[in-house]
Amino acid sequence: MSSQGRPRRADAERNRERVLASAEIVLARDGLPVSMRAVAAHAGVGLGTIYRNFPTQEALYQSIIVQRTQALIAEAAELSTAPEPGRAFLAYFTRIVAHATRTKAMADLLARAGIDPKSGLADVGQADVGQDMRQAVQGLLTRAQHAGAIRADLQMPELMALLTATCLAAEASQWDAGLRTRTLAIVFDGMRAQPPAR
Amino acid sequence: MSSQGRPRRADAERNRERVLASAEIVLARDGLPVSMRAVAAHAGVGLGTIYRNFPTQEALYQSIIVQRTQALIAEAAELSTAPEPGRAFLAYFTRIVAHATRTKAMADLLARAGIDPKSGLADVGQADVGQDMRQAVQGLLTRAQHAGAIRADLQMPELMALLTATCLAAEASQWDAGLRTRTLAIVFDGMRAQPPAR
Fold this sequence. Notes:
The structure is a homodimer of 198-residue chains.
Chain A: H1 5-30, H2 36-43, H3 47-53, H4 57-79, H5 85-102, H6 106-112, H7 129-146, H8 156-173, H9 177-191
């Protein structure tokens, strides 16, 4: 507070957060590509502020993904001590798919941010959130497998493939909550160590 | 043969088939959008012939999908009398996903042909192949359910959602045969009436 630099840096950070929040809203409303002008108008800042923070659309997309992924990782951390590891793992899977459904263009966003589709949600730019995300999923999986709730032979590549598949379809077809629940129920039965009696 | 019209109509049909076959090859090689010029060059016909048969790119995409879907429907008909209905149903599911993986841009193609993503592979233009495709899948499903191989509570919306999901991911991430087999094995266990012992 005493130096001149501090408040300015705090202002810059606030501006960046405001732009990012507006970009999220504009993306959800209009889909891709995100208009920098629309973001500036929504955030109530000039175009210069937008481009200073996000020189390219790719940079903006990457920041949105990093922010979303960090929020999802924080949720995984909360679930990592849940009393029922199997339920926690499946709840997290559901959470990610619901998240994909909510926005108009998550799949396109991943592709346009230059993310390797082989790795699903991984590899976001220079940030390590992709790796963190995989570790979060891996942690919940391992715990659920140790608890005997999820089959021991389920490996990460297949799990990420199923997560990517259901996220892509949920987003493309705009699954409603009912279809999501019924479709994931089948996938989850396939992942369970002891499928429930039918 | 005696009238002047017959051979010309046959020629026109042959030209259309040649253009469609070339479009398939150009699509697999270059992805979307398909260059009409590249198709004409590959088929060895003039641009006029292309546009006479396919006035727009959408018309071309729809024809490609109709042709592919008809081929898949013919395969379903062959499987509809297979001795093991459960295996036949799962083999068909696998066949469709493998088909999606093979081409660079099946998912985009579906979207660009103006197909309602809610219905997955259904609703291709004026042609009824979308409906035929659904009926083919439904027929194999019902037979597998009557044989006790597939759970009786599996409904078409969830089945089509799973088919769309795995096709989209297989195409987007270019699943190799191993990943496809391992990922579908989990989905199939979820769809089976009696999951195999693990």
